Amino acid sequence: MIHYNDYYDGIEDYADSVGFVADYCRTIIIDTLGFRSEIDDNDGIYDIYIMQLQPGNYGRNWKDPDGSPEGSSFITIDDDYASGYYTEGINTMKITIAHEFFHAIQRAYLQSDSYNDFFFELSSVWIEDVIFPDINDYILFGPAAGDYFDNPEIIIDQCNGYGLGLYGHYLNYYFGDNTMHDIWNILSIIDINQNNYILNAIDLVLVNNNSSFIQTWLDFNSKNLFN
Predict the structure, then answer these.
(1) Which residues pair with 48 in a beta bridge?
(2) 115-142 as b/e, with b when 16 or more CB fall inside 10 Å?
(3) What is the pLDDT of residues 153-178, one digit of tens each?
(4) What is the pLDDT of residue 224?
(5) Chain segment 94-114, per-residue pLDDT in tens
(6) H or E element, residue 11
(7) What phi and psi values does residue 11 have, to the nearest 5 degrees?
(8) Which residues, other chains included, contact 226 with Cβ-Cβ below 8 Å and sequence gap of 6+?
(9) 46 DSSP 8-state letter
């Protein structure tokens, strides 16, 4: 359900486009890529709210209030993306919905916490380019909002994840199109009380490919130094 107030000419058409894009993203993520469905809230309807956000504020995925099923969420997005973004207008709306709705999907596997935020963001930046490969907002947004490219020597889980969408592409390119999907499946069953459980999940998926997290991280960093 798309929520909006009728305060400018054209917002109804914009809201229609939001609904179409949300349906499209959901189809790609669930039906094509095989990820789990989002968790329904109490009324079984997923909510997206169109609002006047500050320039540069793309949007956000929010946990539903107390009393809702664990893992349910809703999204807020801007009402026109007119200025302050690396792309503008409908294109920015598209990648924002892809990014934020994938956070809703992630909540069906694992609840967010201060440790795993980097992988939540890494994965959502990755999915933007999977669904909308011709909208390359993340190429500019990632280095600007992320902290990886300015600090490539820091440990991956100390990054905020916005600059690491390319690592998701790297994994799928070298180890198969289902690699990111397989990592999320492992995260739904792994013991999250163990240290470095995200990296352990990556290891568990890569071991069948005669690799490991640290091997891929070293190779990924080395390639970025020269490209």
Answers:
(1) 2, 75
(2) ebebbbbbbbbbbbbbbbeebbbbeebb
(3) 889 999 999 999 999 999 999 999 99
(4) 85
(5) 999 999 999 999 999 999 898
(6) helix 11-26
(7) -70, -30
(8) none
(9) -
> Which amino acid, residue 225?
L
- Separation CA 204–CA 58 (nearest Å): 34
* DSSP structural state of residue 38: P
**Residue 144 has what pLDDT?**
87
What are 10's two structure tokens? 């054209």
Look at the block and give the residue holding tokens 């709210």.
49
C-alpha closest to that of 202 among 212, 191, 192: 212
Please give the distance of CA 36 from its chain centroid, rounded to a whole number. 14
pLDDT of 122 reads 97
DSSP for residue 158 = G
Residues in the chain predicted with pLDDT less than 50, given as ranges, are: none
DSSP-derived 3-state class of residue 210? coil
